[in-house]
Amino acid sequence: xxxxxxxxxxxxxxxxxxxxxxxxxxxxxxxxxxxxxxxxxxxxxxxxxxxxxxxxxxxxxxxxxxxxxxxxxxxxxxx
Length: 79
Known about the structure:
Largest sheet: 3 strands, antiparallel
Helix content: 25-40%
Shape: elongated
Strand content: 25-35%
Structural class: alpha+beta
Oligomer: single chain
């Protein structure tokens, strides 16, 4: 069960947390990260010009991950 985050394929089971953070550049940009709860790693999902835009992207990523997991469960329940 993989989801593409920028140029990397990531196992959805490794994503426990999705967050919006202000960009460290201070340019008024917001970054969306996906990673684990302990922050051992995080994948940059995207950079957005407003917090609202970043929140929508975060919600879309969460929905996509949930759909991948639902499809996976549905596939194995058929067998």
